[in-house]
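2024-03-11 09:14:02 INFO worker-7 job=invfold-0412 stage=load source=structure_tokens
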């Protein structure tokens, strides 16, 4: 195999790795948004809606807000790091950087994504810890309904794309 083919194969591999890590982040984000919301924009509205549906007490709402605020600065810093690292990776790929550089950047990116996933899990656990048993059951019901709705929309999109083809 020529050196160029090896480099192309290596680039494809790293694009797949980065794509998988990005996909993992995309899959985790809705769960975190449902559990904590972002406090801004669409996620904040979703969080408020969920709090109403779960009928959280004022004390529970205050505890959730305190939990979110206590981690907000760290989450924002981590988000900025990920954005900057994505830019570096994109620039490196487009400029034809060597494999060692891509390996190093992807390792950093992977570590940050794993850390982000662990933080999300911790936040979900904190969230569930303040819920009553009834609220936990309601949360599971809401998650199931949301997943069913998402699957239905996916099927509808898939069938409409099939008929267009």
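2024-03-11 09:14:09 INFO worker-7 stage=emit residues=165
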């Amino acid at each position: 195999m020529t050196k160029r083919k090896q480099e192309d194969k290596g680039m494809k591999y790293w694009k797949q790795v980065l794509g998988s890590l990005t996909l993992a982040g995309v899959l985790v984000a809705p769960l975190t948004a449902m559990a904590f919301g972002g406090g801004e924009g669409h996620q904040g509205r979703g969080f408020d809606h969920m709090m109403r549906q779960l009928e959280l007490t004022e004390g529970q709402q205050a505890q959730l807000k305190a939990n979110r605020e206590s981690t907000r600065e760290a989450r924002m810093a981590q988000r900025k790091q990920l954005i900057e690292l994505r830019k570096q990776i994109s620039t490196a790929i487009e400029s034809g950087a060597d494999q060692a550089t891509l390996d190093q950047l992807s390792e950093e990116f992977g570590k940050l994504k794993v850390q982000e996933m662990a933080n999300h899990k911790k936040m979900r656990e904190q969230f569930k810890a303040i819920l009553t048993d009834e609220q936990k059951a309601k949360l599971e019901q809401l998650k199931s309904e949301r997943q069913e709705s998402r699957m239905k929309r996916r099927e509808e999109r898939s069938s409409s794309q099939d008929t267009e083809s």
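2024-03-11 09:14:09 INFO worker-7 stage=report msg="The chain is about 90% helix and 0% strand."
2024-03-11 09:14:10 INFO worker-7 job finished
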